[in-house]
Amino acid sequence: MAENPLETFLADLRAPVERDPAARGYLDVLLSYPGLRAIVAHRVIHALYRLRVPLLPRFLGSVSRWLTGIEIDPGATIGKGVFIDHGMGVVIGETAEVGDGCTIYQGVTLGGTSLQRTKRHPTLGRDVTVGSGAAILGAIYVGDGARIGANSVVVKDVPPNATVVGIPGRVVLVDGKPVAGGDRRPRVDLPDPNAPLIAELTDRIAALEARLAELERQNASSPL
Question: DSSP readout, 53-97?
């Protein structure tokens, strides 16, 4: 069933009023909230993108980023009632999907970890909250109702109703109950988007070295 644009807009408009104590009503949100403007603009831009209109969606996306400080790729899928609070520095990648009712704070990145033209950005379920400065990287899934702590770096799937903190992100609560055990030592375990290219170059260098060695043997055995 096709989405009703008016219902979607009203859900987007209600989200800041219901979730931000600083909001002073619908008119205040319409006039003062860059997150709402970025989302409304993205809905038009995404429709053009799906119609395969050349160049225009990306150009309009750059204009929206300049006006709001929020970068949403034309290909990203944004659900109804999503609230981007403050929003400066938010980046949402091309294949990212954000479920209905999500809340995203400033400086959040929904980024990719691959250079391939495939699904490479995260999917957020419904009612996910992502704290300031958090990065969710790769084609991973964040379950409904999950909460991602500020400045966390998440590179693995997150179960529903879980709370994730740290670098890399680790689950500390599920359904409000502490998660026992687990290695909590700080470490960095981020995927390297250049790893496939480096592996390919290494294989090619090895093949060239083998060929060079063969040519040297042939030259050494040939009579002058």
Answer: -SSHHHHHHHHHHHHHS-EE-TT-EE-TT-EE-S-TT-EE-TT-E
Tokens standing for residue 68: 């709001």
Supply angle C-alpha 120, 138, 37, rounded to 5: 80
Secondary structure of residue 144 in the 3-state scheme: coil
Contact between residue 138 and residue 132 where contact means Cβ atoms under 8 Å apart: no
Tell me: pLDDT of 3 over 90: no
Burial of residue 139 (number of CB atoms within 10 Å: 0-12, 13-18, 19+): middle
Task: Compute the distance between CA of residue 154 and CA of residue 174 in angstroms, rounded to an integer.
Answer: 16
The pTM for the full model equals 0.76
Q: Inform me whether the pLDDT recorded for 194 exceeds 80.
A: no
Both tokens of 132, joined, read: 């300031």
Q: What's the pLDDT score for residue 207?
A: 86
Q: Three-class SS string for 167-217?
A: CCCEEEEECCEECCCCCCCCCCCCCCCCHHHHHHHHHHHHHHHHHHHHHHH
User: What 8-state DSSP symbol labels residue 158?
Assistant: B
- Amino acid identity, residue 74? P
The torsion angle over the Cα atoms of residues 171, 172, 178 and 183, rounded to 10 degrees, is 90
